[in-house]
Write a structure and sequence with these properties.
2 copies of one chain form a homodimer.
Chain A: E1 2-8, H1 19-27, E2 30-34, H2 35-41, E3 49-53, H3 58-70, E4 75-79, H4 89-95, E5 102-107, H5 112-120, E6 121-122, E7 128-132, H6 140-152, E8 156-160, H7 170-178, E9 187-192, E10 200-205, H8 206-209, E11 218-222, E12 228-230, E13 233-235, H9 241-251
């Protein structure tokens, strides 16, 4: 059975790949991916055959990977972040039915939600919802219902694809929906180019976030009702602070 | 400024750590953690000073780490999975205010949601909500409201801490809440001991999941209305299949 790996390479820096991802890419003959991600790893894996397609050519890219694997070449399809969060692993498993001689293995990675959270501080310490604002393949009504539900139930909310050239007002629309249930003082944060050159991080209140311009390399975090700023970091406490103070004063059971 | 690293070591296997996590642990003199996690990494980092506390002693553990760092020793606090998802990074940043001479850096890792998803297939390909069923520090009413909101808005739902010895009926209660909005035929999966000895994976329908016994090393995935089983894997399609077939037949724009 020929093996085809679907590998999450993390936010972008070589160091943020898992040891397993590195070992697999080193062992592969062919590495397939979106041009931008292949360029991120190319220098670390010399001597490989790299196959790329531009952004809209996902299905063609998947078939390229399956065809290389079916021809007997150890092959990896790479994705930024985790392969299973808005990545290629679902499509790969769907297309896999046409290539019964190829076994797909998914190799997880650090996704933008956790990679970005680490840069901001600790915003995801409690229950959270991940929502993509891209309506390319999801009706806006579905996105809207999810934002409202997550806001009302006081989830920390992490937004992927907050905007693009074609969708410049989407983050503002999302904030306005969330503001129906959350205070304008809710602590929010944005991280761009996580772990790469040009990494930028910023904190906002929810009422300010609605006017912030983001791009497709930005991940947005909207705190829950307990999220606060501690020493310049965005922190969602897991243990209520009153309990911590109680425990810190030596009364822990 | 003394550096204190909070390092997510991933689900448990050495290979699932990031390169950065490995490099940092290699560079540290002191590694602090919950006994079980320290035992997972100990053999890979010989010659380090290991400090451990049992499960309920989180605050003591944090203070140990800060005291080692404040005394000038390069120190890492390790957490399983990602340090920022129900991990120690929030508490570390909260306690950090007492140690102004120590700078905390969070190092992200593969969390159980993405690590487990990779074993199951691709359940998290679309918007998802992560909910912990532990009511140790969260009122059950809050957990219930979040489960209902996530179910109604058709999020894929990932459950952490689905049960423990003291909370044996919690997964059943959670399933019954979700069943108010989701079909009993919804595809679900469980993964235990991700990436470690004894890794087990199983698929269920939601109506079956309510009777499944889990433990604290299990992560539970409840699909959205589109999630299906493809070749024995749990897959939430990102692109509607009708669209894929359309594109596969050569009509992609």
């Amino acid at each position: 059975m020929n093996k085809l790996f679907v590998v999450g390479i993390g936010p972008g820096a070589y160091e943020q790949m898992t040891v397993r991802a590195v070992n697999i890419l080193q062992s592969c003959e062919v590495i397939v991916g979106y041009t931008v991600y292949v360029d991120l790893v190319r220098e670390h894996f010399p001597g490989k055959r790299f196959l790329t397609t531009p952004m809209t050519r996902e299905i063609e890219r998947c078939r390229m990977a399956f065809e290389a694997a079916a021809a007997g070449q150890t092959t990896a399809m790479i994705c930024s972040g985790d392969a299973g969060v808005y990545g290629m692993s679902g499509l790969m498993l769907e297309i896999g039915g046409e290539f019964p001689g190829v076994e797909v293995e998914i190799v997880p990675g650090v996704t933008a939600a956790t990679g970005g959270a680490a840069v901001l501080g600790a915003p995801l310490m409690h229950d959270f919802a991940v929502v993509s604002l891209s309506d390319l393949m999801t009706p806006w009504e579905t996105i809207e219902a999810r934002l409202l539900a997550a806001a009302e139930a006081d989830f920390v909310i992490c937004l992927y694809n907050p905007s693009s050239r074609k969708r410049s007002g989407y983050l503002q629309r999302a904030c306005d929906l969330i503001l129906r249930y959350r205070s304008g003082d809710t602590v929010c944060g944005t991280v761009s180019n996580i772990g790469r050159e040009g990494e930028t991080v910023a904190l906002f209140l929810l009422r300010e976030l609605r006017d912030v311009q983001t791009d497709m390399f930005t991940t947005v975090f909207i705190g829950n009702s307990q999220t606060k700023v501690i020493g310049g970091r965005m922190v969602t406490p897991r243990i209520p602070l009153c309990h911590i103070n109680h425990v810190l004063s030596g009364e822990e059971k």
